[in-house]
Amino acid sequence: MIKLIGILIIIVGFILKLDTLAVVLIAGIVTGLVAGLPFPKIVEILGKAFVENRYMSIFIVSLPVIGILERYGLRERAAYVIGKIKAATVGKVTALYLVLRTLSAMFGLRLGGHVQFIRPLILPMAEGAAMNRYGEIKSEDHETIKGLEAAVENYGNFFGQNAFVAAGGVLLIVGVLKELNYTVEAIDIAKASIPIALIIMVVGSLQFFYYDRKFDQKYGIKTRPKKENRQNA
Amino acid sequence: MLKDALTEILYIMMGIVCFYSVYATLKEKSHPSKIPTALFWGLLGIIFTFSRIGLLWGNKNIYIPDIYTGYMVIILTLLSAFRLVKIGKFDESTSEFKQQMSQKIGNLIFVPALALGIVAFIVAQIWTKQLGSLVAFWISTVVAAILALVITKGKVKEMADDGRRLLEVVGPVSILPQLLAALGAIFTAAGVGDVIASGIKTVIPQGNILLGVIAYCVGMALFTMIMGNAFAAFAVITAGIGIPFVIAQGGNPVIVAALGMTAGYCGTLMTPMAANFNIVPTAILEMEDKKYGVIKYQVPVAIAMLIIHIVLMYVWAF
């Protein structure tokens, strides 16, 4: 039981809002020590895992590309394009992205990412749609839109990916079951993952449309003056 | 061999982004925390670039021993914990300039952004076996970078500065996913998973299919929340609960295992331990709530999905 002290440290650290990195490091070192691992061994495990998981930070490579595109107005353009579509709402933009993101994950396409898609494209589109429909919105609602756009990337990515036969999760399932003496085929695991991929498109969209209704009630739908409409047509 | 070497190029590129931050930080005249900030990005760049540098030319004996990397990670954490890593000054373009350029360049600006995903997909389709998706990722980044420079007519220096700007906006939290993976490794070495699996085992009654399904799905979600990673949870919980309490009672192994994994993903949506999905994005999107800004919107969907998993497994696998 004493080995669970690391989990306790994490929970307490998060509740007290201490520095996350420090809390995680201390939890790791303490867990290792109570399990009887010598300190240098713990540091070595720490270093090894850090190196082996460098791939988790690959988003860093795309930062310069996204950065320069932002400098030259990528986000403004994304908002402008969506602004021309009168029927666009936060919910519709986000739900459409959910469907595309889930489908692309199902086919093993890496068309997504918080750095590559959400920040430069999808978030400005959703905010553009909101401004278009409601005029200015309160800062707490900007935060809500950010939260939803961060979430949609995860929904599509997580629940779509295992429908792809070469996905990491599928291969892991096959490997683990094999060790436990159950032989299954990757293609069957992928097929069994399809229903959940379809379900998340529905469940996620319900959430996004719920916020559409909430925003509609809060702000009312602004109809643009006719003159402006004609300019954009 | 070739694949390892080409993968190493990705990590070298990540290191270069960090090293540019070091250079720009040191060059800045009145940086609020010059040396510690440069030290942070410098050490991180060294770990990215040199920890397995020998693989680049196929000599795996040339590397930084993991124990030194471990000590460097501890220094990185301390620099962050004492708030010594600060954001520098950037010459970001004005919003008038952005508006003006976005009209001038038009929809062409989308080409490099989409190329990031599409080129990676094409390369991965053709050479997945030989190269792997990480190599496809950096190839697509290089293509997108060239396209971006051509289409915007921007300068390489601007690109480097913008990379630094975004890197520092994300800040030290960018190492959190890797640090949590390291925590998971220590948990595994210490046997934390076995303690939890045996704990859950003692509370589930044998012979009840529905309770077994609930225990497996909820166990996957909970243990994923603790580990921050469904992959780490899957082996432990499937061996400890999935096999004896679900599959051994007649559940179809394919359906049970497939749903078990995605039940774990429901946990991923609810935990700050899955930092690359839930915490780093709060920095990338510059949100105010840096801990639960994303998670609080995901929790209702995650719980709904978890219930759907339980129902689906109970109905479909038996």
Question: Which features does this protein show?
Answer:
heterodimer; A: 233 residues; mainly alpha; 76% helix; disordered C terminus; B: mainly alpha; globular; DUF969 domain-containing protein (chain A)
Give the arrangement of secondary structure elements:
The complex is a heterodimer of chains A (233) and B (318).
Chain A: H1 5-15, H2 20-34, H3 39-52, H4 59-71, H5 74-83, H6 90-106, H7 114-134, H8 139-161, H9 168-179, H10 186-192, H11 194-219, H12 226-232
Chain B: H1 2-27, H2 34-50, H3 66-81, H4 95-105, H5 110-131, H6 133-152, H7 156-170, H8 176-190, H9 192-203, H10 209-227, H11 230-246, H12 253-268, H13 275-278, H14 280-284, H15 295-316
Helix pairs in contact in B: 1-2, 1-6, 1-7, 2-3, 5-6, 9-11, 10-11, 10-12, 10-15, 11-12, 12-15
Tally of strands of chain B: 0
Percent helix among the residues of chain A?
over 70%
Percentage of residues in DSSP E strands of chain B: under 5%
Fraction of residues in β-strands of chain A: under 5%
In angstroms, what separates the terminal alpha carbons of chain B? 45 Å
Rough outline of chain B: globular
- 3D shape of chain A: globular
What Rg of chain B do the Cα atoms give?
A: 23 Å
Structural class of chain A: mainly alpha
Q: Which residues of chain A sit in consecutive blocks of at least 5 with pLDDT less than 50?
A: 225-233
Order of helices and strands of chain A: HHHHHHHHHHHH
